[in-house]
């Protein structure tokens, strides 16, 4: 299935706070989410380690282990979710809440894999370590 919009509403009043159009944020102009995904490709987690829950929405598979996600981080000053395209660049991102690190991995070739570690520095994910392993 595909997600076209996300509507964020006030829990108490039901008033719409924000409506987010997804197609222009997606890699191919539409999300491609399997009905067999346990969480249906949607999760709320603190992806930038600021204490607020952010939105992580599955977008599509893009080859070489690349899995595209749409990241919307909560902006407490504006009281709305804003896209964070820098996170989309991290392939197979795993968020370590305890260490406040993001781990990524990608396949560089048939026998080579690259592993990356990122930390939020000055408001964005910053590469702090990388390792290339060849078989």
Characterise this structure.
- There is one protein chain.
- The chain has 135 residues and is mainly β.
- Helix content is 3%, strand content 51%.
- The strands form three sheets. Strands 3-4-5-6 form a four-stranded antiparallel beta sheet. Strands 7-8-9-10 form a four-stranded antiparallel beta sheet, with no helix packed on it.
- The mean pLDDT is 88.
SSE layout and pairing:
Blueprint: E1 5-9, E2 16-21, E3 42-45, E4 54-61, E5 67-75, E6 80-83, H1 85-88, E7 94-96, E8 101-109, E9 112-121, E10 124-134
Antiparallel strand pairs: 1-2, 3-4, 4-5, 5-6, 7-8, 8-9, 9-10
Radius of gyration: 16 Å
Q: What sort of overall outline do the alpha carbons produce when their principal axes are compared?
A: globular
Instruction: Give the helix level as a range of percent.
Output: under 10%
Tell me how many strands there are.
10
The fraction of residues assigned to DSSP E strands is: over 45%
Kindly report the spatial arrangement of strands forming the biggest sheet.
3-4-5-6
Query: Poorly predicted ranges (pLDDT <50, ≥5 residues)?
Result: none
First-residue to last-residue Cα separation: 37 Å
Mean pLDDT: 88
* Class per helix and strand makeup: mainly beta
Q: Can you count the helices?
A: 1
Topology pattern, helix = H, strand = E:
EEEEEEHEEEE
Major sheet, described briefly?
4 strands, antiparallel
